[in-house]
Specification:
By secondary structure, the chain is mainly α. It folds into 2 domains: 9-179 and 288-317, Rossmann fold (3-Layer(aba) Sandwich); 199-282, Tyrosyl-Transfer RNA Synthetase (Orthogonal Bundle), CATH 1.10.240. Helix content is 56%, strand content 5%. The chain is built from 14 helices and 4 strands. It has helices spanning 9-22, 34-41, 48-62, 79-88, 93-97, 100-108, 117-120, 122-131, 145-162, 201-210, 231-239, 242-254, 259-285, 290-317, and strands at residues 29-32, 70-73, 137-140, 170-173. The strands form 2 sheets. Strands 1-2 form a two-stranded parallel sheet. Strand 3, helix 9 and strand 4 form a beta-alpha-beta unit. Helix 4 (79-88) runs parallel beside helix 14, helix 10 packs antiparallel against helix 13 (259-285) and helix 11 packs across helix 13. The protein starts with 8 loop residues before the first helix and ends with a helix.
Length: 320
């Protein structure tokens, strides 16, 4: 993940909870990719270092286990940069220009000057992040599948020129439930509509009860509504048990419950899901230097693995 801000509940259900479960089946590498953050934040990178720590706290609080998995910061492993450089020598420019997110993000981020090689080449840096560990699987949502396919093409091209060094990683598709923001749009820090993992219960209560929109047709308590048009119901489908989802849907359609009733029930589900995360976060914060030490040890393990890969790469190319 890029350290561009604190993580929100969309990250929790869309990625982190799946990552936690994968730790029981795979040898996992989790990288906070600060070089990737520079691709869009290069003009003012002052906040990146602080966000690195926040992301690490969010990961560890959510259940990423630094004893079972390798947790590190990308820039602490310079082998990523070397491999990216070497791969850039063989990758055709049109491969990067056709990545769907390249044009999409340029359109969405028109307030930033993204006419840079770093932005064009970030999918290749992603490929280096993956291939440095000769990974066999990459957990992604559907929107990231083209990036994994590019990585597979890069691996094939390298192996064709220099011999079999890299496996072709598979996209490990993960479900990404829809978790809209407080205003009904996609949840995002930049939209100011997110519920963050690091927020207190009181702060989340204020956001849910006073700022989260509902079905606009329910102007009065006795008006029936359509849960399919309500962001609160979308959250119930992610955070609540089936019985509560059924109660919320039926009560909304018949005006048997009010929007505040529905929000109060969701707030309790939030408390159940996030209280253990807050508790683990508090323990980590109470131990000065604990997170830094975890990242330092993770970088050592990552470098040992990536350095072995780079030795084979250099040998295959013929560079001492």
């Amino acid at each position: 993940m890029r350290p561009t801000g604190p993580l929100h509940v969309g990250h929790l259900v869309g990625a982190l909870e799946n990552w936690v479960s994968l730790q029981g089946s795979y040898e996992c590498y989790f990288a906070i990719v600060d070089w990737h953050a520079l691709t869009t934040e290069y003009s003012d990178p002052s906040a990146i270092r602080g966000y690195v720590r926040e992301v690490a706290l969010d990961w560890l609080s959510a259940g990423i286990d630094a004893e079972r998995s390798t947790v590190f910061v990308q820039s602490a492993v310079p082998e990523h940069a070397e491999l990216h450089l070497l791969l850039s020598m063989i990758v055709p420019l049109p491969w990067l220009e056709r990545v769907p997110t390249y044009k999409e993000q340029r359109e969405q981020l028109q307030d930033k000057d993204l006419n840079t090689y770093g932005f064009l080449g970030y999918p290749l840096l992603q490929a280096a992040d993956i291939l440095a560990y000769r990974a066999e699987a990459v957990p992604v949502g559907e929107d990231q599948v083209p990036h994994v396919e590019l990585c597979r093409e890069v691996a094939r091209r390298f192996n064709h020129h220099y011999g079999a060094v890299f496996p072709e990683p598979q996209a490990l598709l993960t479900p990404t439930p829809r978790v809209p923001g407080l205003d009904g749009r996609k949840m995002s820090k930049s939209y100011g509509n997110a519920i963050f993992l690091s927020e207190s219960h009181a702060a989340i209560e204020d956001k849910l009860l006073h700022r989260m929109v509902t079905d606009p047709a329910r102007k009065r308590r006795h008006d029936p509504g359509n849960p399919d048009l309500c962001p609160v119901f979308d959250h119930h489908e992610v955070f609540s048990p089936p019985s509560t989802v059924e109660w919320a849907a039926g009560g909304c359609r018949t005006a048997g419950i009010g929007c505040r009733d529905c929000k109060q029930a969701l707030l309790e589900r939030y408390r159940e899901r996030l209280d253990p995360i807050r508790e683990r976060r508090g323990l980590l914060v109470s131990k000065p230097g604990a997170v830094d030490e975890i990242l330092r040890r993770g970088a050592e393990r990552a470098r040992a693995s990536a350095a072995e890969t780079l030795r084979e790469v250099r040998s295959a190319i013929g560079i001492a």
